[in-house]
Amino acid sequence: MAVEPPHAAFEQVRRRKPRLVDTDWLVLRGLAAEVSAAAIELARAGQVALDLGCGNQPYRQLFEAQAIEYLGADLGHAAQVAIGEDGRVDAPDASFDLVLSFQVLEHVRDLDRYLSEAKRLLRPGGQLLLSTHGTWLYHPHPEDHRRWTREGLVNELESRGFRVDDCRAIVGPLALTTIIRLTAFTYALRKIPLLGRPLATLLAVVMNLRAAFEDRITPPAVRQDNACVYVVRAGVAR
Questions:
Q1: Which of 64, 134, 144, 200 is deepest in the core (most CB within 10 A)?
Q2: How many domains are contained in the chain?
Q3: What are 115-144's pLDDT values in tens digits?
Q4: Is the torsion defined by CA of 205, 228, 76, 38 positive or negative?
């Protein structure tokens, strides 16, 4: 495997262990906690997992720590498993115990192909672990197509042959408004010479702590239907 460039290695760590000075600290912290818990609960030694649309594979270590074989799949041939331009994954049917999809679904143009491939690749009894945005800022990589409510996301999966076993919400609307303001303020402050970056860092700490408090006091029912990110565990419906 090719050696990751320094910025990719930094981003891998940041995704698993975000810093309080990161504008998306609260979101990434919650996502990393859910993925870590799912890896412990779902993965079993000797199983094989495929990260579908793996990017720089930030959660690889969490699954390899459970003694499973982890493979990354992405467009072209940079990853261990290639995804063709038509969305077809270069792997046989029923090859994997786990199919992983982290913050990819909102960027997928053809949901039918993507989810049918996830279903095709799962062995009987296998699990799909998927995270995607409920509400978040536009962020094309290289495209950005969708946002979901909990109900809408569950329906997208169930209408394509999955059985949703769990859907967890990360960061509710009250905290998210603070995070969005922090993102905008930080972007502006960093353009100021000399003092801009220190001020942005201080603001991030203050507003991240505020967002954490706001999320703590948000009623769970409100967060569940209005989350920034959803983490879904699903199997193939029989």
A1: 134
A2: 1
A3: 999 999 999 999 999 999 999 999 998 899
A4: positive
Neighbours of 120 (CB within 10 A): 17
CA dihedral 143, 146, 147, 151 (to 10 degrees): -150
Give domain status of residue 179, yes or no. no
Nearest one of 64, 65, 62, 43 to 126, comparing CA atoms: 43
pTM of the model: 0.93
Residue 202 lies in a domain: no
**Rounded distance between C-alpha atoms, residue 22 and residue 11, angstroms:** 11
Q: Which residues pair with 51 in a beta bridge?
A: 72, 100
pLDDT tens profile 168-204: 999 999 999 999 999 999 999 999 999 999 999 999 9
Within 13 Å, how many C-alpha atoms sit on residue 11's CB side? 8
Which are the contacts of 152, defined by CB distance < 8 A and separation ≥ 6? none
H helices present in the chain, as ranges: 6-16, 25-42, 60-64, 111-121, 150-158, 173-189, 196-217, 220-225
Report the CATH number that the domain containing residue 72 is assigned in CATH.
3.40.50.150
229 in any annotated domain: yes
The answer as to whether 76 is a domain residue is yes
| Domain housing 133 | 6-172+220-236
